[in-house]
Amino acid sequence: MATFPTKRLRRLRYNPTVRDMVRETALSKNDLIYPLFVVHGKGIKNEIKSMPGVYQMSLEILVNECVELEKLGIPAVILFGIPEHKDEVGSEAYDPDGIIQQAVRAIKKVTKKLVVITDVCLCEYTSHGHCGVLDGERILNDETVDLLVKEAVSHAKAGADIIAPSDMMDGRIGAIRKALDQNGFTEIPVMSYAVKYASGFYGPFRDAAESTPAFGDRRSHQMDVANGNEAIREAESDIEEGADIIMVKPAGAYLDIIWRVKEKFGMPTAAYQVSGEYAMIKAAGRNNWIDEERVMIESLTAIKRAGADMILTYFAKDVAKYLDKSK
Ligand code: PBG
């Protein structure tokens, strides 16, 4: 093995064109999935305080946004709904005329190839803000799965292209897969939030989706941040149950997990750069404590380098514009 002075790793770093030539990881628009928040009403575009540049939008504004996203070359969006009424069992989640079902139909009317992914969970729809049906303060697993199945099928009926369960109940991927198949949706993929940690990084999202739990937390179903082997077991069971795409969430603090899951299973792997990751970069950028654009690209490049094939990120639009500019 050659050593210094014959081996000089800096040789490939002097010339910027050579640096471009040897670069191992490049972000592409095809990596991007843009999260959107839809609310009832008209003319609503509410900026989320803890997430500058991210809005709750009413239908007609959302639809225009989707047309613009398609023009920008962003391949996919993931939708989160804020219902009109919340109740104990999250009824609007599986109402054929719920906000998400309406949004999917409206987007599908005006876009040609934008992939519409829907988040399947109950937390936005329940009066208590928990991800499932409660017995006292306990979230009931199997009873919740029954409702998630109804929600997933109703999203597919509305025209969703991919179903993304984010609830972390046991067995929901198998149950959803079976129900989709029975309803004729054998070709609709399931993107499983397979490895989802009980993370403090979701704080700003709960402002956006109005889904903060009324008491307690999500540690009885989301994963302990300290665990890595368990991530493999979670991913493995979702794959066995029929998941087509496996997600790790959050992304930035869990690059080791993205890497392990990708290495172990070689599945199409998604990573979610969540609200808190976005908020931190935005806040520091606004204070001129960091260079926001540079850190945006660095953080996403690192997530891709770790093994993510696609990234859910609130920066998707900014990245698409950046890629156009730097062509
Ligand atoms: C649950 C869901 C959450 C996020 C995506 N889907 C919130 C939670 O688990 O509390 C968080 C995404 C983010 O922080 O950007 N429906």
In summary, what is this structure?
By secondary structure, this protein is of the alpha/beta class.
Helices, strands, pairings?
Blueprint (H helix, E strand, L loop, with lengths): L15 H7 L9 E8 L5 E4 L2 E8 H14 L3 E7 L16 H12 L4 E6 L13 E2 L2 E2 L1 H18 L3 E4 L6 H11 L8 E6 L6 H7 L19 H12 L4 E5 L5 H11 L3 E5 L1 H12 L5 H15 L3 E4 L2 H10 L2
Parallel strand pairs: 1-3, 1-4, 1-12, 4-5, 5-8, 9-10, 10-11, 11-12
Antiparallel strand pairs: 2-3, 6-7
The site of ligand PBG has 10 residues, from α6.
Polypeptide structure, described:
- The chain is an alpha/beta fold.
- It has one domain (30-325): Alpha-Beta Barrel (TIM Barrel), CATH 3.20.20.70.
- The chain has helices at residues 16-22, 59-72, 99-110, 141-158, 172-182, 203-209, 229-240, 255-265, 275-286, 292-306, 316-325; strands at residues 32-39, 45-48, 51-58, 76-82, 115-120, 134-135, 138-139, 162-165, 191-196, 245-249, 269-273, 310-313.
- The strands form two sheets. Strands 1, 2, 3, 4, 5, 8, 9, 10, 11 and 12 form a ten-stranded mixed beta sheet that branches. A two-stranded antiparallel ribbon has the order 6-7.
- The longest helix has 18 residues, at 141-158.
- Ligand PBG is lined by residues 119, 121, 123, 166, 202, 205-206, 218, 274-275.
Helix percent band: 25-40%
Number of helices: 11
The best one-word shape is: globular
CATH superfamily: Aldolase class I
- Number of strand segments: 12
Q: What's the architecture in CATH terms?
A: Alpha-Beta Barrel
- Structural class by helix and strand composition: alpha/beta
So what's the CATH class?
Alpha Beta
Taking all residues together, what is the mean pLDDT?
97
Compressed to H and E, one letter per element, the order equals HEEEHEHEEEHEHEHHEHEHHEH
Gap from first CA to last CA:
38 Å
Q: Report the portion of residues in β strands.
A: 15-25%
Q: Could you tell me the radius of gyration in angstroms? A: 20 Å
What is the CATH fold-level name?
Answer: TIM Barrel
> How many structural units, i.e. domains?
1
Query: Quick one: biggest sheet?
Result: 10 strands, mixed
Small molecules bound: ligand PBG
Sequence stretches where pLDDT stays below 50 over 5 or more residues: none
